[in-house]
Amino acid sequence: KTSMVNVDVNSAVIEAFQGFQVELDTRNDTYERIVKLSRDITIESKRLIFLLHRVTGSDDRDSILTDAAARMLELRTSKFLPLAKELKGQDPYQFLRAFSPGLQEYIESVTFYHYLADNQLASLDSIQTGLTFTLQDSNGNQNDLPKNLQVKNSAPRKLPDECIGNSDVPPSLKTLSDENKQDIQNRDVASEECLQGQNCTTDKAVAAETFDCESLQTVSVPVPPTEYMLGVADFTGELMKMAINSVGSGDLRTPRIVAEMMRTIHDAFASIGNIPRELRHKLRVLRQSLQKVETACYTMKVRGSEIPSHMLADVFSTAGTG
Amino acid sequence: KTSMVNVDVNSAVIEAFQGFQVELDTRNDTYERIVKLSRDITIESKRLIFLLHRVTGSDDRDSILTDAAARMLELRTSKFLPLAKELKGQDPYQFLRAFSPGLQEYIESVTFYHYLADNQLASLDSIQTGLTFTLQDSNGNQNDLPKNLQVKNSAPRKLPDECIGNSDVPPSLKTLSDENKQDIQNRDVASEECLQGQNCTTDKAVAAETFDCESLQTVSVPVPPTEYMLGVADFTGELMKMAINSVGSGDLRTPRIVAEMMRTIHDAFASIGNIPRELRHKLRVLRQSLQKVETACYTMKVRGSEIPSHMLADVFSTAGTG
Amino acid sequence: MSSTAEIFNNFQDYLNADYDLREEIRAVVRDLEQSAREIQTTLQAIHQPSKSTGYEEICQSALSMFSKVKENYAVLATKIPSNQYYRYNDHWKFVTQRLIYLCALIVYLRDESLVSRETVASMLGVKTNREDGFHIDLDDYLMGVLNLTSELSRLAMNAVTAGDYSRPLRISHFIGELDAGFRLLNLKNDALRKRFDGLKYDVKRCEEVVYDLTIRGLVGREEKAE
Amino acid sequence: MSSTAEIFNNFQDYLNADYDLREEIRAVVRDLEQSAREIQTTLQAIHQPSKSTGYEEICQSALSMFSKVKENYAVLATKIPSNQYYRYNDHWKFVTQRLIYLCALIVYLRDESLVSRETVASMLGVKTNREDGFHIDLDDYLMGVLNLTSELSRLAMNAVTAGDYSRPLRISHFIGELDAGFRLLNLKNDALRKRFDGLKYDVKRCEEVVYDLTIRGLVGREEKAE
Amino acid sequence: MSSTAEIFNNFQDYLNADYDLREEIRAVVRDLEQSAREIQTTLQAIHQPSKSTGYEEICQSALSMFSKVKENYAVLATKIPSNQYYRYNDHWKFVTQRLIYLCALIVYLRDESLVSRETVASMLGVKTNREDGFHIDLDDYLMGVLNLTSELSRLAMNAVTAGDYSRPLRISHFIGELDAGFRLLNLKNDALRKRFDGLKYDVKRCEEVVYDLTIRGLVGREEKAE
Amino acid sequence: MSSTAEIFNNFQDYLNADYDLREEIRAVVRDLEQSAREIQTTLQAIHQPSKSTGYEEICQSALSMFSKVKENYAVLATKIPSNQYYRYNDHWKFVTQRLIYLCALIVYLRDESLVSRETVASMLGVKTNREDGFHIDLDDYLMGVLNLTSELSRLAMNAVTAGDYSRPLRISHFIGELDAGFRLLNLKNDALRKRFDGLKYDVKRCEEVVYDLTIRGLVGREEKAE
Amino acid sequence: MSSTAEIFNNFQDYLNADYDLREEIRAVVRDLEQSAREIQTTLQAIHQPSKSTGYEEICQSALSMFSKVKENYAVLATKIPSNQYYRYNDHWKFVTQRLIYLCALIVYLRDESLVSRETVASMLGVKTNREDGFHIDLDDYLMGVLNLTSELSRLAMNAVTAGDYSRPLRISHFIGELDAGFRLLNLKNDALRKRFDGLKYDVKRCEEVVYDLTIRGLVGREEKAE
Amino acid sequence: MSSTAEIFNNFQDYLNADYDLREEIRAVVRDLEQSAREIQTTLQAIHQPSKSTGYEEICQSALSMFSKVKENYAVLATKIPSNQYYRYNDHWKFVTQRLIYLCALIVYLRDESLVSRETVASMLGVKTNREDGFHIDLDDYLMGVLNLTSELSRLAMNAVTAGDYSRPLRISHFIGELDAGFRLLNLKNDALRKRFDGLKYDVKRCEEVVYDLTIRGLVGREEKAE
Ligand SMILES: [Mn+2]
Ligand SMILES: [Mn+2]
């Protein structure tokens, strides 16, 4: 060799880079674990959506919804809780691309579930509440090693189930009082966690009593509003499928109701400015979906016009029970 | 409802589809597990390649290679063995897309390692041997449930380490006798497993004695030749980087040797017909890499031409030690 | 011969063998496509209500063309190594889906029931399960069944045109059952999912025909209750 | 107000706030870019061997421009909520890398050593660690350092033109150390990796300059051993 | 100062002026877009068959929003020198097409006739002809009209759903006239031509609605003859 | 002059000739497109049931425009050397397909039969066979015929709107025949095949119209048996 | 005539006029491109060191070809209304940049100075300022100048090949000045900015040539100090 | 038989003939590609500086492989009717360009001159002119020549590595001549033009090699003057 630079492995430069190596590897490992959780969430959320579509034309609507709620709870406990722990103390936006696909699909499924249950949009708050978890340190100490944290979901009655995913309880329980509402743009994750923690304990005073609030820690998977809206936009695609499926099941009422809902969402999206690019594409799809449902409504109207007068009462009475 | 079809949940159709559901879910779950293993393999293989590049300009070449070999063995045991178990009894081509990225990156790293160790291409056979695993059923029975299978790697001396990934032992041990060579296109996984099993036991007769061959099972991750070649093509990119790095370290010999190797591979690829499309793109990259190395050789030649005659001996003597 | 040269020579042999095999597969697939086209053309007669030939006759005629199909699948089966079905799969995927659909159509026209995978396999002369050799892929079977539904929804309408008012009801019931079956499945975002998304329109179309008949009193309530 | 309307109204507020914030960020970033351009132009003088001003003077002049940079980062820091650094990151990523490179260049010119993250942070008036607030991203720091190497390899050549034969050796040694450092890292296939792939050419170029000097006897062997 | 430096010296002013002007244009365009969105949202009510508000009311409400639009165009007009309209054209092209479409929709809803360029110009507060200053480009006018047709074909269906059986006939007639009008034009292979190619789907959709109504006797022959 | 320069010397003439010829072809093709547009516009009248003019009149008027088309093809024929037809083919391929479709439409409207290649050739003033000179390519003929089917399926619907209930049945029968004809052909995976895949939608649409008429008793059984 | 038809009636004239004008522009631009190619070919001789012709002669010969260029710009100027310069701008933008580069090259070869916009304008026979009519856009001028730098960096090398060791130093100095000039400008993220990013490679290449000459003692220190 | 069926009846023969012919062409083209690959591999040896075989030997060996190429072109020529050359052109266009490039490379290596179209034609066993039958298209010839330049610029470098310092000068001169030749041509905006735009990089690369050699005194002035 003519002039090989003999690098001193103990030099300050090398020492610094050894630190960088650890930092980069740690971050990449975290990223990879989050990607895997996100993939699992995507798969289960898709399956949930399939399950929810079985409601159309089924006699067993309630048991399907109950089943779905149980699986959502399980999904939150088994996948979102580990995800929340990964994100604890991190800037969630640093890993957003890693969990965004799963989160959006989950929002889509939750929104669909809530529409079936309540006939309305699940709010961002309620979804965020479902993804906020209260943990108890087994020693009552602050200790952020995940293995020492225990989900108190398994302890019956001590911590109400709603603390781990309380978005599936009837809507009345979820309504936030006005003073708790915060401007979406101003909230940050910290205050959000706090808010949810309070909700948990104030909504069910009994549960709060048995608890030392100091030993409670909350972790959460934050739901950025844009992710929420992307999930909502996808949800309208499921609405469309449901509407057409309804016609196939002889249910002539659902398409009109769904059209109304979709039109509301469509017009709301159309009136929004500064809209992010990813959302803009989905709105084109939404517009197409809406027209499919409108066409179905049109067809039903036109066909319905031919009902001979002597059959009218008969048809309507059966349609009413659908 | 006017005419809702009341589907009989016990109908033959529904019954059949319940079976399909299980079949599809099982397959998709397998696919997903394989994808995750592949991602892990990709990451570790990339890190191995980074590690191997540290050989350039290092005094510590041997310990780096030893380190790399150990990590490759660990990678095979911890990721490829589970992958092989997943693929057991399956048509591997059904899941090829799921593990192809990881496999190719692994081939790239192994090929790079072998080039550094032996100055030649690792053969497909040797790579395949490394991905063929001998398992012992703990009860001595045929039992294909993965949980009952034990890797005998941990049992010292009983089964030589080479059985699990013997591609890193010195080349002399790996040379297959001529009668064992099979036409690449004719081999199938079954005969491959058998062949490897024999190799394992015949190469080290001592090990074979302590063993009941009947209770041995081999599983493997098959390496389709095209995947192998895709890995080899990527490997040439690493060769290029190494050649340029060498110049930076004052090593004037390596670029010429590397150029020779790359030209051989380049010309060999160029002479091949019926080439798969994925490979064709990589050959354009290979051509560019080759030209970069050729340019480096050219520059060294041109600059070398200026050496004053009184310095010639001096320069060459130092260059020789590089 | 240097080892690099050896490696590449082996690879060339591999690629050539692969190329030749694919050419052979393509030739067989071309024959299968020709058969499928002919069977399809024969079965199209079911939509032509003015033709005097009945379904039974049409099916008979279509079935007689399957012997050539079987021969071709037999040839294909000998060409494909047991663990490489999915390596070459793409070549015959499409025509197999089409032939499955044609089997399903014939079986429906005769028995008004869903053809099983076993029956399809025996009609095409292949295995039902992967383990046993050249087989029918589940996805292809499902795709074939989905193609059946759109043909049947078309038939429901043309049956009315031909004056047959009870068939649409039976078709509607059958497609409804299929729809319920498919809704049990968790499909990935692939071709199958996309095709399944279209199924709801077939269901809807049948429902509309039944509706048209019902409001005109062309079917009795008892028939629907069946 | 219906709840859907409420939901969308909130979302509009959110988007508007986001838009306004991004506009403000863009304005600050524009100022930072202007500063970076001016500092860069000042530092370009190191390549002009005919200019009589020394490195020290050039660095001094460049450093004086950093007070405005600090002010701008201070403004930026107040605008970005603590856990949303990576949400808006893209806006200042590029200019920050450039400013880090300029810090690194100044520090090298003065001390011939690698600027630490802490020093960069204090030169820009930001935090070193994420936990403490608006900070320097590791990737951006590394990118800035990589940009330094190409500038230094250019400087090695221009130093020779200006008759300074010892500097290239020191630069070559320094870049060699950086190269060894970077090779410790496991980079993903991203912008950093791509830029790192170019580092080897900088190393090579310096080596060539040293070679040119060596064969002409323009540097003593002892200097290299240093 | 070298002559090169001299030449460059006043370029920056020019570039800054251009940059600033574009920023100002963007701000106005953003306001126009906001207005367009509000008008559009208001007009969407025509598709809500359940809403009790009539077209007249809806149009009235939409029209009241145009005063702000006019103001913005007035601002824009003062900013753009007459010989640079086409230099900055791209900024407002899209929103102008959208506003033209909204004008056309309102005029159609009120008079069931095609809005003229003059009317559009007066609704937006700009000139009709290029010579007179800030104007509406013919291409933009035609694009706006083409956007009208798809909205009307949607309205035709939703009107039926709402029980209005005569409107679709009038819409179909109107779109047919537009189609004939556009056919006369020899459009280049540009955005306009591409959009025109989509018009035939609107024509067809309306024809289908008319067909559906006719075959069910929901419209009389005399209505169609009108 | 070097031999290289010599070799290049007369290439420019060749390239210029090619360029000029293409310009001339483009000019003729532009005229053909204009004619096609006019003929198409004229024929659109068949869908407007309120117009008093009958098909015969419309066809007559369309036919009179073919003399200009013939002239243009004659010009084209003189420009294209027989062995370079396929070299420049792409320029007129599209407009020729469109004109063939227009010929096919006129012939159908008059005779309710499929136009033959010979008739098309004589209408356009070109040869039927390649050997005889400037001719109609079979692919273009088939493509033109396929374009006819979608126009006819639209006509079937509009005929009902105009109160003509028997025409849809005849159209449905005709399109069924075309479908059977195309099914016989083993098309490659090209534009033609893709377009043929669209034919089934036209068949279905016609069947739907016939269904609509039948279920409402608007056509007698005897008509369908025809 | 319906009011719709009325509205459409005179649009065609407008569209045709636009189409014709574009065709005419294209024809002139084609001539300009031909001239640019010829001038460029003539100037290529500066890189061929064996040719006996000097720069002066080459420039003279190139300059003589500008009369045709001027004529073409004169024609263009008469065709373009002053308020539509930017409407048709895209047609001649590219060739104008190329001609500006050729002007700049000639002026540099003669005077070793940067051509001014005024000089370019007078060489091309157009106006300097927008207000005065058909003019040179500043962007195009800057782009032309940027194209000059890569040609000069090539010339620096070829000059060495031809044994001229002092020219590269002067070129390096000149390009350095241009680099400093462009650095002053705050360019938007457009084509100009992108092209400017390429300038640093030209700077570097010249520096390398100077380095090569210096290390071999082929230029004296005094020359560089100049 | 209906007239429609009649019309369709003999189309299949036509389509089959076309399909079969294309298959046959593809088979011949595959053989040509195989030959081209072998010749190319043989010629690659010129870049191996360590190999002892001279150019003459390499060329001889490559030339011997052309007899098979000629045979294949002879087969092709018999298959393609003279008026359909351009119909099937796309099949062999690419391999022909490659073989022309190989001819050009061999001729250059032997004579250091540009192969003429006549020579290429005779090496491939085809006609030079279109009129005489199966020929070489000018475009393909020019493309082949352009491919030669990048191979030669690579050779220029590798020759230096192998210690041959005079060849690069001759190559640079030759490529310069080709560049001048192509500059004369007014190429359309097609593949040829795009490829020609790449030629300037080859020119520059060769100039750089000559520069490197010159500045180190590795070539004498007299050699360059040659
Ligand atoms: Mn979805
Ligand atoms: Mn790699």
From TrEMBL, chains C, D, E, F, G, H:
Transferase is among the record's keywords: no
Matching SUPFAM superfamilies: Translin
Primary localisation category: cytoplasm
Gene3D superfamilies xref list: Translin, domain 1 (1.20.58.190), Translin, domain 2 (1.20.58.200)
Cell compartments where the protein resides: Cytoplasm; Nucleus
InterPro entries with a match to the protein in the record: Translin (IPR033956), Translin_C (IPR016069), Translin_fam (IPR002848), Translin_N (IPR016068), Translin_sf (IPR036081)
Keyword Protein biosynthesis: no
Cellular component annotations (GO), alphabetically ordered: cytoplasm; nucleus
Binding site for Mg(2+): E151
Family: Belongs to the translin family.
Protein name, per record: Translin
Organism the protein comes from: Candidula unifasciata
Taxonomy of the source species: Eukaryota, Metazoa, Spiralia, Lophotrochozoa, Mollusca
